[in-house]
């Protein structure tokens, strides 16, 4: 089936999203209640105490899906108009999986300061902000600048990806009976997803019981690469986020993907199609794990990776086993954040989401390390775990 042609046909026929009333408007009493004069009482309540906006308006259950169209998955910098259908699809997933009213906001600017200001200006309407498809390194600065606006803000390309990768890797390592702190991990892609994955894996590796590992004090053995090779000590062209990755990974090597893959236990690809060869896979450690998540064409075809000796292979696609998909994370994370009345999304909340995902899979195997993206129970469990983490950490409105 040609899903592209089908999608265009459906979009021509009708809108994917609608705003529909949640109450009936049939009588004069209804009109007087939901508009004038009754609505003035609601406005006065909020004006006297702005926190009541969460109790009396759509803010309690809305998320803005904000993009500038600069890094749309698989399409690149196609601008806000081209990004709109993707943001509509994202909003649809929020609605279907967790009942959140999400709305696409595509901004006609790719200026960092303007985006930050735009989000701050629309924040009164929304209970959360999902930043989406904004290119690195600007995405890091934008997200950081919006952490204290009183509502949860998360760049899903970073943290949604990292949460699902961690969940899948926890289970994959159980299957091959390896400890993350004894593994060599190669991450291809130093954009928003690659940086976030690296950071979250490092945080996870420092948790008990891993603190008793022989690698204690040395840090996780992780190498991150961009299109020019390893993020290593000889590189003089690193932007601030890549310099930070070099600092936290403490990688002392230089070279290219083929060099990095030698004796690697894990390959995580968030980069480009067909860059990983069978020859490279054959140089990996025994019982190797490959997450080839470039879309729509992965870094290596799963069949070729298995043929070359990989024990576990995952991709971002639904037509192969072990689909590593953000939809497993972001709806539940935001649902949990809204339910807990969280003011931000923290590292603890992301870890809680990853643990909920990994623990949900009961019968682990090399083709079953992550829940199905269509399992509606997943978002509920993630939401519950995230809400608990937010409350336990105290990052909630008083």
Describe the structure.
There is one protein chain. This protein has helices at 3-13, 28-34, 39-48, 53-56, 79-98, 112-122, 138-145, 156-176, 192-205, 240-249, 257-260, 278-282, 302-307, 330-339, 347-360, 376-393; strands spanning 62-67, 101-106, 128-131, 153-155, 184-188, 221-226, 229-230, 266-269, 289-292, 312-315. The chain has 398 residues and is an alpha/beta fold. It has a domain at 326-393. The chain has a six-stranded mixed beta sheet. Strands 2-1-3-4 form a four-stranded parallel beta sheet, with helices on both faces. Strand 1, helix 5 (79-98) and strand 2 form a beta-alpha-beta unit. Helix 9 (192-205) runs parallel beside helix 10 (240-249). The longest helix is centred in the middle third of the chain and has 21 residues, at 156-176. The chain is globular and about 75 Å long.
Sequence-ordered SSE layout with sheet pairings:
Blueprint: H1 3-13, H2 28-34, H3 39-48, H4 53-56, E1 62-67, H5 79-98, E2 101-106, H6 112-122, E3 128-131, H7 138-145, E4 153-155, H8 156-176, E5 184-188, H9 192-205, E6 221-226, E7 229-230, H10 240-249, H11 257-260, E8 266-269, H12 278-282, E9 289-292, H13 302-307, E10 312-315, H14 330-339, H15 347-360, H16 376-393
Parallel strand pairs: 1-2, 1-3, 3-4, 5-6, 5-8, 8-9, 9-10
Antiparallel strand pairs: 6-7
Helix pairs in contact: 5-14, 6-7, 8-9, 8-15, 9-10, 14-16, 15-16
